[in-house]
Specification:
By secondary structure, this protein is an alpha+beta fold. It has a domain of 256 residues: Galactose-binding domain-like (Jelly Rolls, Sandwich), CATH 2.60.120. The chain is 18% helix and 25% strand. The protein contains 12 helices and 27 strands. The strands form 6 sheets. A 10-stranded mixed beta sheet has the order 3-4-6-5-7-8-9-10-11-12, sandwiched between helices. Strands 13, 14, 15, 20, 23, 26 and 27 form a 7-stranded antiparallel beta sheet that branches. A hairpin with a 5-residue loop joins strand 3 and strand 4. Helix 3 crosses helix 4 and helix 5 packs across helix 12. It is globular and about 80 Å long.
């Protein structure tokens, strides 16, 4: 980033470096500074350690949730030491904590150590049906929101809590924050959802099944919830809560894996009383078997107990937004947008953290824009995937290694300013700043007062003859034909072996994945790609349209739109769109992308994202297609018909530099990231000779042609 940090405001530069080296120190009130990434004189690091313990908290239906508590310790401040603290809660299905198998140590995550040093208590809770907790759940289960309110109320009542609670975490753990906020617990004052999965059709973005991610995520969750290690990401299972034999060794509360296959639920009878006593590493008998009881409750059993649901089996049958899932019959929006009016009514202060390369970035901005003016809402958009960004990719967009370290620390500082404002009541002004803070690769950070950005000029670039992208409408009509290539993939190295998925699937009677290898991309949310997203080779399998070299820098910040007029030799089909920056040497790098099933061509009012249409205007106004059964036309191209495919790409920020070109690439598949269209490839295998491989025609012209529309924004050299 280098000078990009200076674009936020005039006080950056040397002060940023000093602040990041010394921490967010308290000091002379007259020298206080609070602005993006700079926080001096408000909140000091006055605690040097922590005190941690675990316990169970019982829900009204008797289910016990596993809870870790960490309180600040080692006070070094000048005032009297606090005994009651504001609390930051993590509420997770991925294990409230982990342990070091060699030492038994249960570490506190580094980001939470940062907040402990600033005088915040930290509480981490396993959702029911996961980790060390009892019970079972379906995916994004409504029970989670009710339990979450109980957890917040319990925290507020503890003698070490001052009654002010915030929440933290990303992805599913980001979703849990909105879910709990919708229950309006009085003590919940602020949430900081990071790359949160709040999407009304989460398993089928654009109407197309998310094959590789759902396969791998389901296997990971299945393994964690049954106290097994998913080898591609060797996360130790969450530690036991109770040291039942009282010897100080928490790890010997994990029973022996009798057959050595990595699973516990296949070694012991259920109920436990129906079989031999469980065995433990120290050969000491237990009475309650807390840890094993939880693991066994998370697994399905022949007596009808369902266990925590397998994600693939839940998501795969949900072909439409009004499809009802197994287990409880809910539809996809019933566990997200249906609760949105209650989130608004909660009044909770929300800091959304988004990543330009994350699959949930559209819903992150929809949530912020729709909340704006109704409750305190702020959004920070980073150049990041679901799990960050690799050094190589960072360098490719203008961020060196030193800047990347400052980048990570600066995001922690922004969270601290938010918690300080809403949990400690410190008037640091963060709520009066422009609510959008976005990084634009090759340009720097920008603060904006609204989303969409004030001054945005939606500018059309037309698909033209010679596979060009033109700034003016073509003078005559035309068409380009493209034979679908089902082997096209948006993924790139390194390859990810799927043997661990095969193992997990076998344990529950599901077949192996259709692909032998996965590659990384936006949808691979477990590890960021190690290299930049260059598409030069992949474009050889695509239909591409490219501008002439730009005569000046072009900045975009917002939601690019694609308007495609197409026909096909097949009745239906899928489209995958890639917006790219082509360097003078011909190297093409991905800027943003999206996908769309042509059969969902009819546009619907995006206010219908919220079931029941409660009168809330969902912002920004973007193309939306309902994705209900009635919205789908399986013969959209039948009989030579032409259809308009209109969709928004993932929102992004980018500066196309002078001398570079803008490219739109279009394909008909992205396998194995997405399932091939079932009507064209029933076996979901690109090489199946029975596949129907269509030829697609894209229509060009002034009145009925195709184009991409870019949100061009003015240069703000001062970062304002």
């Amino acid at each position: 980033m280098g000078s990009s940090w200076k674009r936020v405001g005039p006080a950056a530069g040397a002060m940023v470096v000093a602040m990041l080296a010394a921490g967010c120190g308290s000091g002379d009130p007259g020298s206080r500074v609070s602005e993006p990434f700079i926080y001096e004189g408000y909140s000091g690091e006055e605690w040097t350690g922590h005190r941690r313990w675990a316990e169970f908290v019982t829900m009204p239906d008797g289910v016990k949730l596993a809870v870790d508590v960490a309180l600040p310790a080692g006070y070094t401040g000048a005032a009297d030491s606090a005994t009651r603290f504001p609390v930051i809660l993590q509420y997770t299905p991925y294990g409230r904590s982990s342990y070091n198998p060699a030492t038994g140590e249960v570490p506190i995550p580094p980001n939470m150590q940062f907040f402990l040093r600033h005088g915040y208590a930290y509480v981490s809770v396993d959702m029911r049906g996961t980790g060390g907790s009892d019970g079972w759940i379906n995916l994004f289960d409504p029970a989670v929101r009710h339990d979450g309110k109980e957890a917040v109320d319990w925290i507020a009542a503890q003698p070490w809590s001052d009654g002010n609670v915030g929440m933290t975490g990303g992805s599913y753990v980001g979703w849990s924050q909105y879910a709990v906020a919708s229950m309006k617990p009085a003590a919940l004052k602020a949430i900081v959802p990071n790359v949160a999965g709040w999407d009304g059709f989460i398993g089928r973005p654009g109407g197309i099944f998310w094959e590789s991610f759902i396969e791998m995520w389901s296997a990971l969750a299945y393994s964690l919830n049954r106290s097994s290690v998913f080898q591609p990401f060797p996360i130790p299972p969450t530690p036991p809560v109770v040291d039942e034999d009282g010897d100080g060794d928490i790890l010997d509360e994990i029973p022996v894996d009798l057959d050595g296959d990595g699973w516990l639920h296949d070694d012991y009878a259920w109920p436990l009383e129906n079989g031999p006593a469980p065995r433990y590493p120290d050969s000491v008998a237990r009475r309650e078997h807390h840890y094993l009881r939880g693991v066994m409750q998370h697994a399905a059993h022949p007596n009808g107990e369902p266990g925590t649901f397998d994600g693939y089996r839940v998501f795969k049958p949900l072909r439409f937004r009004d499809s009802r899932r197994i287990g409880d019959g809910l539809t996809p929006p019933d566990d997200n947008w249906a609760w949105f009016p209650d989130v608004l009514a909660s009044g909770v202060a929300v800091l959304h953290l988004a990543g330009w390369y994350d699959p949930f970035v559209r819903s992150n901005f929809e949530l912020h824009a729709t909340m704006a003016g109704k409750l305190p809402s702020r959004i920070i958009a980073q150049a990041a995937y679901h799990q960050g960004i690799s050094p190589a990719h960072a360098r490719a967009i203008g961020i060196d290694s030193a800047d990347q370290a400052r980048y990570a620390r600066g995001i922690l500082v922004e969270q601290l300013r938010w918690y300080d404002r809403w949990l400690k009541g410190i008037d640091n002004g963060v709520d009066r700043e422009p609510p959008v803070l976005a990084f634009v690769p090759h340009d720097g950070w920008r603060q904006e007062s609204s989303w969409p950005v004030t001054g945005t000029a939606m500018t059309k670039f037309y698909l033209d003859s010679g596979r060009t992208l033109a700034a003016s409408a073509p003078g005559a009509g035309g068409a380009d034909r493209y034979r679908a290539d089902f082997t096209h993939s948006s993924g790139w190295g390194p390859p990810q072996d799927v043997s661990a998925i095969v193992r997990a699937n076998a344990a529950i009677g599901r077949p192996a994945p259709v692909a032998d290898t996965y590659f990384r991309n936006r949808a691979f949310m477990f590890i960021p790609p190690q290299t930049p997203p260059y598409r030069t080779e992949a474009d050889a399998k695509a239909l591409t349209y490219t501008t002439a070299p730009l005569e000046t820098d072009v900045r975009i910040l917002g939601h690019p739109l694609v308007h495609l007029v197409a026909s096909s030799t097949a009745d239906d089909g899928d489209f995958f769109f890639y917006l790219e920056d082509v360097a003078p040497d011909g190297q093409a790098i991905l800027v943003t992308e999206y996908q769309h099933r042509a059969g969902f061509s009819r546009l619907r009012d995006n206010d219908e994202l919220i079931p029941g249409r409660p009168g809330i205007d969902v912002e920004p106004e973007l193309p939306w297609h309902g994705f209900a059964r009635a919205d789908y036309d399986p013969r959209v191209f039948a009989g030579g018909k032409t259809a308009e495919v209109v969709t928004a790409l993932y929102p992004t920020g980018w500066m196309f530099r002078k001398g570079h070109s803008i490219r739109l690439s279009i394909t008909a598949a992205d396998w194995p990231t997405f399932e091939l269209h079932p009507a064209l490839s029933p076996t979901n295998r690109p090489g199946d000779p029975r596949n129907v491989t269509p030829t697609i025609t894209l229509h060009r012209g002034t009145g009925s042609g195709s184009y991409v529309e870019l949100p061009i924004v003015p240069d703000r050299g001062d970062g304002t």
